[in-house]
Amino acid sequence: MMYLAAEEAQNPLLPVWPEIVIGLICFSIVFFVFAKKLLPNINQVLEERREAIEGGIEKADAAQAEAQSVLEQYKAQLAEARHEAARLRQEAQEQGAVIIQEMRAEGQRQREEIIAAGHTQIEADRKAAASALRQDVGSLATVLAGKLVGESLEDHARQSGTVDRFLGELEAKAEAVR
Predict the structure, then answer these.
(1) pLDDT band for position 2 (50/70/90)?
(2) Which residues form a coiled coil (predicted)?
């Protein structure tokens, strides 16, 4: 009973000293094992993860910078291509205008040549017609005069001189009227 009295006399809020010592020893062993074995491994894994994350961020930043650089180059090339296209369009318009002007000048020159050739041909045809008409009028007038007079007036030299003189007088009168 005494044993019970001793237990009863002890305060239940105060722990027993041997249990505290054993608990401290066990805690120290567990703490030592954690500190020496597990904690370095945990720190090493955390450090590797941190480096991997930082490396990934650096790679992403580098990739983003490279993408930005490529985008700027693309924009510069696109602007240059647009400028070149505008320049080529302008040159084509200028060349087109020059070609149109040359074609108009060539058409005008050909038109003038055709008109001049037409005038020359008309003048030649007029002279030929006038010459043929003189001969026909001369021969008809001679035949008619011969029928009126009753004798043949077939002398060519005299006939040509008379007809030419008569037609010359008619042309002079026609020019005087103009």
Answers:
(1) very low
(2) 57-98
DSSP 8-class letter at 152: -
Q: In this structure, what DSSP letter does residue 1 have? A: -
Q: Which SS3 state, helix, strand or coil, does residue 64 take? A: helix
Q: What is the pLDDT of residue 151?
A: 57
Q: What is the spatial distance between Cα 69 and Cα 97, in angstroms, rounded to a whole number?
A: 42
Kindly report the backbone phi and psi dihedral angles of residue 108, in degrees, each rounded to the nearest multiple of 5, phi listed first: -65, -45
pLDDT in tens, 98-154: 999 999 999 999 999 999 999 999 999 988 888 888 777 777 777 777 676 655 556
H helix intervals, the chain:
2-9, 17-33, 39-149, 156-177
* Segments making up each domain of the chain, as ranges: 18-177
